Amino acid sequence: MNTIEVEGLSRTFNGKPVVNELTFTVQEGEIFGFLGPNGAGKTTTIRMLTGQIHPTNGRASIAGFDIVHQRQQLKCCIGVVFEEQNLYERFNGWENLAFSASLYGVDSKRVAEVLEQVGLRERAKDRVQKYSNGMRQRVVIARAVLHKPRVLFLDEPTRGLDPIAAREIRLMITGLVDQGMTVFLTTHYMEEAEHLCRQVAFINQGRIVALDTPDRLKASYGKRGINLTLLDGTHVYIPFDEMKNGERLGELAASGRILTAHSAEASLEDVFVQLTGRRLAE
User: Fold this and answer.
1) Is 207 exposed, middle or buried (0-12, 13-18, 19+ CB in 10 A)?
2) Residue 91's closest CA among 134, 144, 129, 132?
3) pLDDT tens, 127-162?
4) Residue of 140, 172, 192 lying closest to 35 (CA atoms)
5) 262-273, pLDDT tens digit by residue?
6) Which of 148, 152, 180 lies closest to 29, judged by CA?
7) Which of 170, 90, 109, 182 minimizes the C-alpha distance to 138?
8) Which tens digits make up the pLDDT trace of 10-46?
9) Nearest one of 10, 148, 167 to 78, comparing CA atoms
10) Could you report how far apart the first and last alpha carbons of the chain are, in Å?
11) How far apart, in whole angstroms, are the C-alpha atoms of residue 62 and residue 54?
12) Around Cβ 73, how many Cβ atoms within 10 Å?
């Protein structure tokens, strides 16, 4: 079942196309990676899909609700986490969430549930200004899931976090998906997308230039072979599709000169650079 359906979605500003005819679907319970460099159209796409701005052309639905004509119903089934945290610094964790719960019409018992879920129950009474950046991000995600949305939009959720805090956020995301939530994720970290996402879309200059699973993208654009490091420090690449190299590999193995051997498949970032000529962080 598709939870997100997008067809020909476009948006122009002052006559200039920023998002250009996007078409894709996201299945229920899936983490969908939406990857591209700064200015590629990622945030504009999220703003359209969450009903904050109208598309110039095309259509899309989230959990069956049209993003233009059913915006009130849409708000009830989505949660959104933008890069800016926008927390009340002088409130404690509980008060931040309780205030948001009142806006959603959610019972305060739910606040305790999400604090437990994000591992902040013991720090709930501390002011947010005393929280680490990773703790603040957990509060932001907790706030976005108070009303148990079917779809969660995450815009750079681990940016600026240390490795331990980032790992905790990734574990939170997979935990939410295990409970049936669908996640639409933008990130500058290719390894994060490769680890988390069932599908990834590469967007560049407002257009999707590739859409598939990480494994299929790497297989399609990467090399088929083995990278060897020999004991003397020499690096050797042997393609799989040249039969004569089977003998060469056997000779090297028999000689005992091989220190390490690794498959030569492309990384997800390698694929992106091949398709766009740019790196993700640009």
Assistant:
1) middle
2) 129
3) 999 999 999 999 999 999 999 999 999 999 998 889
4) 192
5) 776 778 888 888
6) 180
7) 170
8) 999 988 999 999 999 999 999 999 998 888 899 999 9
9) 148
10) 35
11) 14
12) 14
**Domain locations in the chain as residue ranges:** 2-218, 223-264
Please state, in angstroms and rounded to a whole number, the distance separating the CA atoms of residues 161 and 242. Answer: 45
Which pLDDT belongs to residue 26?
97
Rg (CA), the chain: 22
* CA count, 13 A, side-chain hemisphere, 146: 24
- How many whole angstroms separate alpha carbon 143 and alpha carbon 137? 10
Torsion of CA 239, 240, 243, 249, to 10 degrees: 70
Quick one: tokens of 221?
């654009």
Sign of CA dihedral 177, 179, 182, 183: negative
- Classified as helix, coil or strand, 21 is strand
pLDDT per residue as tens digits for the range 211-249: 999 989 988 876 677 888 988 888 887 777 654 556 777
Alpha-carbon gap, residue 181 to 231, rounded angstroms: 49
Give domain 2-218's CATH superfamily. Answer: P-loop containing nucleotide triphosphate hydrolases (3.40.50.300)
- Residues 110, 79 contacting (CB under 8 angstroms): no
CA 106 – CA 85 distance, rounded (Å): 21
CA atoms within 13 A on the CB side of 153: 23
Tokens representing 185 are: 């994720």
Q: Which residues contact 5 (CB under 8 A, 6 or more apart)?
A: 25, 60, 61
Retrieve residue 207's tokens: 């257009």
CB atoms within 10 A of CB 262: 9
